[in-house]
Specification:
Helix content: 25-40%
CATH topology of the largest domain: Rossmann fold
CATH architecture of the largest domain: 3-Layer(aba) Sandwich
CATH class of the largest domain: Alpha Beta
Structural class: alpha/beta
Number of helices: 12
Strand content: 15-25%
CATH superfamily of the largest domain: NAD(P)-binding Rossmann-like Domain
Shape: globular
Radius of gyration: 20 Å
Low-confidence stretches: none
Distance between the termini: 24 Å
Order of helices and strands: EHEHEHHEHEEHEHEEHEEHEHEEEHH
Length: about 325
Amino acid sequence: MVKVGINGYGTIGKRIADAVKLQDDMELIGATKTRPSYEARMAVEHGIPLYAAKDAEVFEAAGIKMEGTLDDLLAQVDIVVDCTPGGVGAQYRDVYKGAGVKAIFQGGEDHVTAGISFNAMANYRDAYGADLVRVVSCNTTGLIRTLYPLTQAFGVDNVFASLIRRSVDPPASKGSGVNFIEPSLKLPTHHGPDVKTVLSDISIQTMAVKVPTTLMHVHCINVKLSRPATKDEVLEVWSRTPRVRFVRGGDGVRSSAQIMDMARDLGTRRGDMMDIVVWEDGVSVIDRNLYYYQAIHQESDVVPEIVDCIRSMCKLQDGAASSMAKTNATLGLKG
């Protein structure tokens, strides 16, 4: 039984906590917060031992019982999942190493922070037994989930993807304008190079804009396949790919709003959609050019990858297939 700690009980951290609690080969020891927010109170209400990342006294003053500090948490765990804000995780790298615990970082950190970037399907074994690993971002995870099986089935000469990005996560109250479209002016965007930290041989370029929505990201993707393929052949490959789900505009699923409504109807915790969603009737192949749209739930799609990363780093499962099957079964995902 691997003992897991979480540094940062926020958007990703609370989802990781729930996912770890569902695994029979992992034990959640606790999670940290920096301040006595409603999320801290919810953690206590859900029976999650809470530790102070900084000042424990402010929690006690707010009437929130703490189990100790981050150092106390690290003394009890085998591995810590860093869920701190982007750029902050790297500051804890030496703290984790000094405590002698393995650490998983999020996609908001640079690849060099860990030296290994992870996607369960594409490079599970790269993280096997490693001490430091970075699970790539929500957008990069989405791109790899649909591109990797294409590289295996048909080969890929080149990829161009335009990303329509949500501006902030739903709980945020700052930085979410109501009447804007903001292009990323540093081109190509970081998403393509991030994919290459896992799929090193792929040629990919990306652009992105932010729009005033909090629900999901949407990708518009053009793939130049190495050999001819039909739309049905592409769909067959994806139909056999774990964590990729089809929807149809013809069935009324024409936007991210309907996808998230469908997620709620599926009964997922918090209404999350951890699968990558592809519009089946929005797929087209012309010559060797494949065009498709996919939707990414930025709050949750990396969660199963992190569970699999824990298994790889702690040598709980030898291969991706067995780990992913176990994770998918516990989280109710497409196998």
